[in-house]
Amino acid sequence: MSERKVLNKYYPPDFDPSKIPRMKLAKNRQYTVRLMAPFNMRCKTCGEYIYKGKKFNARKEDVENETYLGIRIYRFYIKCTRCLQEISFKTDPQNTDYEIEAGATRNFMALKLAEEQARREEREEREEEANNPMKLLENRTQQSRNEIEMLESLEELRDLNRRQQTVDYTTMLEQYNPAETERERQEREEREDEEFVKSVNFKNKAESSGTRIVTEEIIEELKEEETALPAPPAAKFAKPNSASAPSKATAGAQLVKRKTPLVLVKPKPAAGAANTTATRTATAAASAIVTPKPAAAPAGLSLLAAYSDSSEDSN
């Protein structure tokens, strides 16, 4: 039981393979194989259709005295599924196909016939070129012309891809809409133009233009509020000093406060407007000079104090 999977059998020392009896078989005997129908066929006896891929138990044999480049050619025998008529076909290594021999006809051979016709035409054309040099020159000229056309079309495609054009098909269809009349199209275009003009912002354009903005300096004088002071006693009136008047005038002059403008824009003057700008600058400088305010006239109490001092000095 353990020896059923053993590959090496025991051979006795006196084993002689030439003494084994051998069966005498035919040289080209047939083998039973399982295969599928290689193409669609129709039985000639009963007209039964046998489709490609149907399985059969077929008999296989070698075709005698027929090879292709040393490749063997085999023949197969099958039976019709309806009338049991024998159908035979063989391999065709030259065309990598099968060839029907007897018992049936092959269907749907349009592709095979087209390929055979193309091969036949190509062979005839080569023979004609070999025998007729003018035909060969004409074919070469036509071939070179076709190559030039292909190169031109390829360059056009490259230009289109380089441009990266984007086409708005909606606008194009609206432009050539047959349902829209000429007047409606003009009105629509005018309406679109007006909407575009309204959407444009002109403020930035005005600011960017070279318009002159003249700024002026605001000078504001701060005046002392005149408040009623209580009268001092007569005995303690001081003698008015002559230097007090200029100090008051200087104090009045210092009370003048100049406001600086918030934004000062100084555009570059043009060549023709240089004199005008210089004149305006001189005028503004002259107006900026503030003359000192004259001292106020002495009031009644100050006169009285001056009179009392003069009387004391005389005494």
Number of helical stretches of at least 4 residues: 8
Summarize the helix and strand pattern as letters: EEEEEEEEHHHHHEHEHH
How would you describe the shape? elongated
Largest sheet: 5 strands, antiparallel
* Overall average residue pLDDT: 75
Q: pLDDT below 50 for ≥5 consecutive residues: which ranges?
A: 235-256
Spatial separation of the terminal alpha carbons: 172 Å
Q: What Rg do the Cα atoms give?
A: 62 Å
Number of strands: 10
Strand order of the largest sheet: 1-4-5-6-7
Tell me what portion of residues adopts beta-strand conformation.
Answer: 15-25%
Which structural class do the helices and strands define? alpha+beta
Helical fraction: 25-40%
Give a written overview of the molecule.
With 315 residues, the chain is an alpha+beta fold. Strands 1-4-5-6-7 form a five-stranded antiparallel sheet, with no helix packed on it. Strands 3-2-8 form a three-stranded antiparallel sheet, with no helix packed on it. The radius of gyration is 62 Å and the shape is elongated. It starts with 30 loop residues before the first strand and ends with a helix. It contains eight helices and ten strands.
